[in-house]
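#lab-general

N.A. 3:47 PM
ok so I finally got the sequence cleaned up, no stray characters, all 143 residues accounted for. can someone with queue access submit it? mine expired

B.Y. 3:52 PM
send it over

N.A. 3:53 PM
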Amino acid sequence: MTMPLITRPKECVKNLDTYFPNGIDVFFDNVGGRLLDEVLGRINRRARIAICGRISEYLITPEEYHRPRNMYRIGLKDAKMQGFFVYDYQKEYPKYEEQLAPWIREDKLRPLEDIGQGIEEMPNALISLYKGTRGGTRMVRVA
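B.Y. 4:20 PM
back already:
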């Protein structure tokens, strides 16, 4: 089964019903804000949601944060939503690398990479990371 990897929140919100016509069972979120709220509006019974960040709101004031409308659906759908801190699992990284590296080599997993050129690209790379204007892992080659 092929599942879309959504990397641009605005595009994702527009297309959630296309990507997930039967609702959402599992969602890993590091965007937060409107995207998370829209996903909660489409969760299935006993959905599982992992929260690892909210990059869409890192550069705005608390007054500008998205006000969730669909949080009640977690209880309504008997769903589970849990946050976690990625560095709590640092000792597991070698195991993940061992599993993921062959998938990448065998083209079963295709990471998206967005690579800029030159140190002068650093400010734009950082801004695009927080604004969600580019997709994939954002990097800048400086040498």
